[in-house]
Amino acid sequence: MLCVASGSAALNPRLARIYNAAGVPVMEGYGLTETSPVVSVNDARNDGLRFKSVGKLLRDVQVLIAEDGEILVKGPNVMMGYYEQPEITAEVMDAEVGSTLATSANWTRRASSTSPTARRKCSRPAAANAAPQVIENKLRASRFIEQAMVIGENRKFPAALIVPSFAFLRTTAS
């Protein structure tokens, strides 16, 4: 079966529907660098393809959402730690969280909106903690915007680089 894998950022559901209508299902997934990298994935087999979803968890992978929204992942796909960087490893790994669950791998922690080290090292306004891909997808949903890139890690405020859809602007303005 021909299919396309998608990850790294949320896929616009409209784009996924276009590919699917063309007979190319998009298997969207979610993962972290620290989880080699897949945690869950959509699967077109057995009626498992769902738009606006990252699918089912992989076998032996467990996910918890902490009270603060942090995503906690445990499973055989979780890294052992950062090479020769025990301090940074200690910031993102926790052997105690969910230690009663039946797996030997440590839990890895990831805030859903920022990198693991940036989250702990700087205090930022709530707007700066928004996931950039969510904001980018909202911006790109406008027919007036062709591309958008949000930046802001380690900054006091987020910023966006926006490329207008000049073709649409021309047809609208005339």
Structure description:
The N and C termini lie far apart (45 Å). The chain has a four-stranded mixed beta sheet. It is flat. With 174 residues, the chain is α+β, with helices and mostly antiparallel strands.
Q: How many beta-strand segments?
A: 10
Number of helices: 5
**Helix share of residues?**
10-25%
Mean pLDDT across residues: 75
Largest sheet: 4 strands, mixed
Q: What is the first-to-last residue Cα distance? A: 45 Å
Q: Catalogue the unreliable spans.
A: 98-105, 112-128
Structural class: alpha+beta
The radius of gyration is 19 Å
Strand order of the largest sheet: 1-2-3-4
Helix-strand string: EHEEEEEHEEHHEEH
Shape: flat
Q: What is the percentage of strand-forming residues?
A: 25-35%
Give the gist of this structure.
22% of the residues lie in helices and 25% in strands. It has 174 residues and is an alpha+beta fold. A hairpin with a 7-residue loop joins strand 9 (145-151) and strand 10.
Give the topology:
Layout: E1 4-6, H1 13-21, E2 26-31, E3 38-41, E4 56-57, E5 62-65, E6 70-74, H2 86-92, E7 93-94, E8 107-111, H3 116-121, H4 132-140, E9 145-151, E10 159-164, H5 166-173
Parallel strand pairs: 1-2
Antiparallel strand pairs: 2-3, 3-4, 5-6, 6-8, 7-8, 9-10
List keywords for this structure.
alpha+beta; 4-stranded mixed β-sheet; 4-stranded antiparallel β-sheet
